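Researcher: Let's do a round of design. I'm pasting the C-alpha cells now; please hold your answer until I've finished.
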C-alpha cells in the first residue's frame, strides 16, 4: 500500500520545515507497471571500519559512516535490540547526535542504522561513539 501526500507550501517558510520518512525495504525485486516520481541516488561517500562490539544478543563486526548516518553490521539475534547510544565527534569539538534507529535482518546479517535529520559531513568526523566505544575515522 502506498500513500501520497501533496502539501500547499505557498504561505510556509520551508527553511523552518523538516521532512522525514520511514522506509522499509524487503530486498525483493518488484515487477509491474509502476514508476517513481522522484530520483534517489545511492550514497557513494562512506567510511568503513572493521570493529567488534559485543551487545547482549548480537555482535557488530563492521561500522560505517555516511552522510545518512552510522551503520553497524553483525550477527546474532535482532529481537530485543534496544536503543544504542551513538554520536559523532566532529573535528571542531562539537558532537552530532542521531535522531532515529532502524534495525533489520538482511540474509544472516543484522543491520542497525542510526540517522539524523540533517546530512552529516563525514570529512569533518573525527570519531564516533557507540555505547562508549570510540572508533576513530581519521
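Researcher: That's everything. Go ahead.
Model: Designed sequence:
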Amino acid at each position: 500500500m502506498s500513500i501520497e501526500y501533496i502539501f500547499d507550501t505557498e504561505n510556509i517558510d520551508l527553511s523552518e520545515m523538516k521532512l522525514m520518512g520511514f522506509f522499509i525495504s524487503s530486498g525483493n525485486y518488484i515487477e509491474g507497471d509502476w514508476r517513481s516520481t522522484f530520483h534517489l541516488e545511492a550514497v557513494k561517500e562512506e567510511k568503513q571500519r572493521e570493529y567488534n562490539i559485543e551487545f547482549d544478543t548480537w555482535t557488530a563486526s563492521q561500522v560505517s559512516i555516511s552522510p545518512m548516518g552510522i551503520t553497524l553490521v553483525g550477527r546474532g539475534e535482532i529481537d530485543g535490540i534496544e536503543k544504542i547510544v551513538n554520536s559523532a565527534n566532529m573535528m571542531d569539538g562539537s558532537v552530532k547526535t542521531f535522531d532515529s534507529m532502524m534495525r533489520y535482518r538482511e540474509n544472516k546479517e543484522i543491520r542497525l542504522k542510526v540517522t539524523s535529520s540533517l546530512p552529516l559531513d563525514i570529512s569533518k568526523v573525527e570519531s564516533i561513539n557507540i555505547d562508549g566505544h570510540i572508533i576513530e575515522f581519521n
